[in-house]
Design goal:
The chain has about 450 residues and is mainly α. The chain contains 21 helices and no strands.
Length: about 450
């Protein structure tokens, strides 16, 4: 039993209050994840309208869709340092403001250049949110249920994706085709404003306060959150900080951090080499390739979003019980099998739309219970406290570089090699299986302050 669990033992009322306070803080921060999903997926229902509105080639359409992802690369790259220097809450507030401005700007854009600028701004916000939100949730969560709470961010991401698909379908049925795409983007301003208001009420991360010499404030936040023994928790944080200082100036790229750095890069690359964003951003087009009509394709996209949500909820109950590695083992096998099925069906002389839908939904279910749930939890917890912001930024940046590249290239490769692009994604999931078996450490149940080479285990 870890010290936090031991402190809670025999004090069920205090534990209940702690759980409620921490869950509320985590849920509030995870609204950034909802916008992450909403803002990234909303473009899936507008690709044909954008192509017609601005006369885009397939290559230019890929760039337009990827413009937000190019912003996410920069946003994730630069967010870690401000999050470490100015605090997690300050960066989340900046992200919320950027979401509001970018959603209104894309909805009202008079030309392609203006649209791309505001879409890029939205990408900056998404990238920064992918760094700071998991860190914040991890730092307000005791080790024994940290996985579930950080995975709430992923739950909100997939909820945002589902809301985007639903919103696109409803708007397409209510608004003229010529302006429907503007409403699809502009409606994101509503949850963005809610996230801004909620973020103003959140406390700063007590771990950030503690390592920046604000022990009294950190202790006060811990009491608000319901920590059973704030003094003992503060002592643990200060001891870990002292160990890092004794090791020298905190640097991400040093020998002692090799394992977390390599693993963060690997899990982020495999996340996108699964083809998940290609499916989410181009879902209606993929279903149309399989023979579905435009309205049916939008409905099948909602099925994708719903499956993603249901199995992400299931992952919340599994990630702390079984650990991170077992979920990736199972997910890699099922993702590979379903992606190979989709590729074979799309290249078949007589493709079966039902089998293609089954394969895509099976892939989404397996991804949601494995990679989708594990990636942000794993990256947010595997690094020592002194370099956690930089480490999260490294993992997020790798993720978004891969996302931008694959999303940009997908329309071109799909047009030239067809369904075999899904066979490639399936092969990458088999490679992920090997990496998980040989190299990935297990981080389940380890306190953040004890996260080092001696405590993580293969």
């Amino acid at each position: 039993m870890n010290s936090v669990s031991a402190s809670f033992a025999g004090a069920p009322d205090e534990e209940a209050r702690a759980t409620v306070a921490i869950v509320l803080s985590a849920t509030g921060a995870a609204l950034g994840g909802l916008l992450f999903g909403f803002d990234t997926a909303v473009i899936s229902g507008a690709t044909q309208a954008l192509q017609a509105q601005f006369g885009l080639t397939d290559a230019m359409l890929g760039f337009t869709v990827a413009s937000a992802l190019i912003g996410t690369v920069l946003g994730s790259l630069v967010a870690g340092a401000p999050a470490d220097r100015y605090g997690r809450k300050a960066v989340m507030l900046t992200v919320a403001i950027a979401y509001v401005v970018s959603s209104l700007g894309t909805g009202l854009a008079p030309d392609l250049d203006t649209f791309l600028v505001f879409r890029f701004m939205g990408g900056l916000a998404i990238g920064a949110a992918s760094v700071v939100t998991p860190i914040y949730i991890a730092e307000v969560s005791p080790a024994r249920f940290r996985g579930r709470l950080v995975a709430m961010n992923q739950l909100n991401i997939v909820l945002g994706i589902l809301i985007a698909f639903l919103s696109n379908y409803i708007i397409a049925g209510l608004v003229s085709h010529d302006v429907a795409w503007r409403w699809m983007f502009g409606i994101v301003a509503v949850p963005s404003a809610i996230f801004l208001a909620v973020t103003l009420l959140l406390p700063e991360s007590p771990r950030w306060l503690a390592i920046h010499g604000q022990a009294d404030r950190a202790k006060g936040v811990m009491k608000r959150l319901g920590f059973a023994d704030p003094r003992a928790e503060l002592a643990r944080i200060e001891l870990a900080e002292a160990r890092e200082e004794a090791a020298g100036k905190p640097r991400l790229f040093r020998r002692s951090h090799f394992t977390p750095v390599a693993c963060a890069i690997a899990i982020a690359m495999f996340n996108q080499l699964s083809g998940i964003n290609a499916l989410l951003y181009y879902a209606p087009r993929i279903f149309e390739l399989a023979g579905a009509g435009a309205d049916s394709a939008l409905l099948q996209s909602i099925a994708v979003g719903g499956t993603n949500l249901v199995f992400t909820v299931a992952a919340l109950f599994l990630i702390d019980r079984f650990g991170r590695r077992p979920l990736l083992f199972a997910g890699s096998v099922i993702c590979a099998a379903t992606l190979l099925l989709v590729g074979w069906q799309l290249e078949s002389a007589y493709p079966d739309g039902t089998l293609i839908l089954f394969g895509l939904l099976g892939f989404i279910a397996a991804f949601a219970m494995s990679q989708g749930a594990v990636i942000w939890v794993f990256i947010s917890e595997v690094f020592p406290s002194a370099v956690r912001g930089k480490g999260q930024a490294l993992g997020s940046t790798t993720h978004w570089v891969m996302a931008a590249a694959i999303t940009w290239a997908f329309p071109v490769f799909a047009a030239s090699v067809g369904g075999w692009v899904f066979a490639f994604f399936g092969a990458m999931m088999l490679l992920q299986l090997v990496w998980t078996w040989k190299f990935m450490p297990e981080t389940n149940g380890i306190a953040l302050e004890d996260m080092n080479l001696g405590s993580v285990r293969a």
